[in-house]
Amino acid sequence: MEYMVMYILDDPVLMEDLIETWVAGGIRGATIIESTGMYRLQRKLIPTQYLYSSNKTGEKDNITIMAIVKDQATAEKCLEITESIVGDLDHPNTGIFAAWPLGIVKGLHARGSGEHL
Questions:
Q1: 17 CB-near residues (< 8 Å, 6+ apart)
Q2: Where along the chain do its domains lie?
Q3: Beta bridge partners of 9
Q4: Closest C-alpha to 107, from 51, 60, 68
């Protein structure tokens, strides 16, 4: 059964290394979306004079990466690969990883080859 893998990368500087490592690890395709979390959005909406921390300006947005992989083992491998680049995801400012099984998947054939994932 295929799995959806979603990773919200906290530090966009690591995106290129992460994608290269996913590809080297057999992750065949992904969708990459620039994203912003609610917390960061709220901080942007609050006037600067009301912010107490010194690091309120120049914050980078997140990158959300989604991929459909062939099974749970591949999703777990993707997590392992991700942590090899960003560090232990239980630590702050490393991002959020989630994976879940998909009931219906259609259209994943490689271009022109008929090969699936």
A1: 85
A2: 3-101
A3: 63
A4: 68
Residue whose structure tokens are 């990466």 = 65
Least Cα distance to 67 among 59, 75, 58 occurs for 75
What size, in residues, is the chain? 117
Which amino acid makes up residue 25?
A: G
pLDDT confidence tier of residue 92, bands split at 50, 70 and 90: very high
pLDDT at 9 over 80: yes
C-alpha pair distances (Å), 110 with each of 1, 37, 38, 68, 115: 18, 32, 35, 13, 5
Q: What's 3-101's CATH class?
A: alpha beta
53: its two tokens = 């921390």
Which two tokens mark 7? 């990773």
Amino acid 83: pLDDT: 97
Is the predicted pLDDT of residue 106 greater than 80, yes or no?
yes
Per-residue pLDDT tens over the stretch 17-55:
999 999 999 898 899 999 887 776 666 665 555 554 444
pTM of this structure: 0.79
